């Protein structure tokens, strides 16, 4: 009986399914239409209606983008209506010719895929939540948050073509943007305001300000970055390491200085305050190679002697012009130097010396994999001002990228004497092996701490 029914029953069962799908679609379309009315303010009470109608235009300021939202809803409605039409005609066709069966291709191409697309489009809509009785409108940030079309284009996940899974195993690509960008909407919109394919404004300092304020990573842009008027070929590496670069290879527009000599520590109008003296090669040349008056300074050869031949790659986390990396290069060690352009062209300088500047802020997880670095050196960046919780997150991130047996070189960290115990606890909590540990006086109230620590094995 079961067997002989199969052929007759199948169309019936298919019809049943079609009816269920159709019913679902009808409900969906009705719901969506209702939300549309809702956004137009139909269900708001008395005063609310007035408030709503009057604010709908300037709601972009702090609220959500109602127009974009309603456009999205409209799109989905159209998709569902088309689908409904197709299903209805198919259903009539089936009723007329009982012999016809539904094939997989039809189901896949005409039903499953459009439904999937509608589903995805629906999910992209971030519905605002209504809070309290003065109908403060809140919504998930980002997709509907930004009004500028280029930001929205950037943020919207990009589905792979022809619905395929990409080499990363996902069906779409998400561009990233720091969540604090929400707090700096005006600046981000200014940053993203350009004609596609034309020249960007000379606004790297706006971009850096955003990054430092947590809008990090920033969106990518589709405009052309300006360069200096002439760009002469850089000096060969045997000369570039210890020579001030050609100043014509830097765009000086956003700095107070107009050439490298002006960046000298002797010039009170040099425009930057961190790492003064870093652009004077005579001063740089003695660092880490000759005994200084400072008790807390280790020499590179002494450090490398601890692990002969083992230290090959590393990270220099600080503010500088790449001198540490230059010296290490001479010892056949490749160092990546973090750099921010705080009032002076630190990135340009490091790169023109033939070294690698890594343009990152304190905000972000380091872009390196776990257990890979032989050495992390840090100096002049995070001193006594840093919040202990922030330092904790940073330390654990360093620990993550440092390999077992790798060295953490804390170079002249300074802080108030009364805070020293807190910081010492932070540095010692990871239970690294102590190779060197020196505390020395900086001034009446301040002390230097230098340490050379080794990450233990973690075969767990
Ligand atoms: C909500 O309404 C009640 C009564 O109208 C009022 O007492 C209360 O303060 C309102 N709450 C907010 C958050 O406005
Ligand atoms: C640097 O190397 C180039 C060839 O690679 C050589 O012609 C030049 O003289 C060298 N410069 C110095 C200062 O050694
Ligand atoms: C630094 O001083 C130590 C002893 O204080 C000495 O052994 C070493 O050779 C000196 N190094 C340099 C580069 O002058
Ligand atoms: C670096 O490598 C070069 C070439 O292998 C070698 O000649 C040189 O002695 C090395 N320098 C140091 C300091 O080990």
UniProtKB/TrEMBL annotation:
GO terms (BP aspect): methylation
Subcellular compartments: Endomembrane system; Membrane
Membrane topology: Single-pass membrane protein; Single-pass type II membrane protein
Main location class: membrane
Keyword Kinase tagged: no
Top-level taxon in the UniProt lineage: Eukaryota
CC annotations in GO: endomembrane system; membrane
Transmembrane segments: 20-39
Pfam families, per database record: Methyltransf_29
Keyword Membrane: yes
Keyword line: Glycoprotein, Membrane, Methyltransferase, Signal-anchor, Transferase, Transmembrane, Transmembrane helix
GO molecular function list: methyltransferase activity
Stated family: Belongs to the methyltransferase superfamily.
Protein name: Uncharacterized protein LOC101497349
Species this protein is from: Cicer arietinum (Chickpea)
Lineage: Eukaryota, Viridiplantae, Streptophyta, Embryophyta, Tracheophyta
Gene name of this polypeptide: LOC101497349
């Amino acid at each position: 009986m079961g067997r002989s029914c199969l052929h007759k029953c199948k169309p019936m069962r298919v019809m049943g399914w079609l009816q269920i799908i159709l019913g679902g679609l009808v409900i969906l379309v009705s719901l969506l239409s209702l939300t549309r009315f809702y956004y137009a303010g139909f269900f708001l009470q008395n005063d609310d209606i007035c408030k709503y109608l009057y604010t709908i235009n300037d709601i972009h300021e702090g609220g959500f983008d109602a127009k974009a939202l309603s456009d999205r809803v409209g799109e989905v409605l159209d998709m569902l209506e088309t689908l409904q039409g197709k299903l209805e005609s198919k259903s009539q066709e089936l009723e007329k010719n009982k012999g016809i069966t539904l094939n997989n291709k039809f189901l896949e191409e005409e039903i499953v895929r459009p439904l999937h697309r509608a589903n995805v489009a629906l999910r992209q809509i971030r519905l605002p939540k209504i809070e309290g009785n003065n109908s403060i409108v809140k919504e998930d940030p980002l997709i509907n948050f930004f009004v500028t079309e280029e930001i929205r284009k950037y943020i919207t996940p990009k589905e792979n073509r022809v619905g395929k899974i990409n080499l990363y195993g996902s069906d779409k690509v998400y561009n990233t943007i720091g969540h604090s960008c929400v707090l700096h909407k005006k600046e981000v919109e200014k940053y993203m305001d350009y004609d596609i394919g034309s020249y960007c404004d000379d606004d790297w300092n706006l971009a850096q300000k955003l990054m430092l304020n947590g809008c990090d990573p920033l969106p990518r842009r589709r405009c052309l970055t300006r360069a200096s008027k002439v760009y002469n070929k850089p000096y060969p590496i045997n000369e570039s390491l210890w020579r001030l670069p050609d100043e014509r290879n830097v765009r000086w527009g956003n700095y107070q200085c107009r050439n490298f000599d002006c960046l000298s520590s002797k010039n009170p109008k040099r425009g930057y305050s961190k790492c003064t003296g870093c652009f004077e090669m005579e001063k740089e040349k003695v660092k880490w190679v000759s005994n200084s008056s400072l008790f807390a300074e280790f020499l590179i050869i002494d450090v490398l002697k601890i692990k002969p031949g083992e230290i090959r790659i590393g990270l220099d986390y600080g503010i500088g012009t790449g001198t540490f990396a230059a010296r290490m290069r001479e010892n056949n060690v490749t160092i990546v130097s973090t750099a921010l352009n705080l009032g002076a062209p630190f990135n340009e300088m490091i790169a023109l010396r033939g070294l690698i500047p890594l343009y990152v802020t304190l905000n972000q997880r380091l872009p390196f994999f776990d257990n890979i670095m032989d050495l992390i050196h840090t100096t002049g960046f995070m001193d006594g001002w840093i919040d202990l919780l922030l330092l904790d997150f940073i330390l654990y991130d360093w620990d993550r990228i440092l390999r077992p047996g790798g060295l953490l070189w804390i170079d002249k960290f300074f802080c108030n004497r009364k805070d020293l115990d807190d910081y010492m606890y932070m540095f010692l909590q990871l239970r690294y092996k102590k190779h060197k540990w020196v505390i020395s006086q900086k001034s009446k109230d301040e002390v230097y701490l230098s340490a050379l620590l080794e990450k233990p094995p973690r075969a767990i």
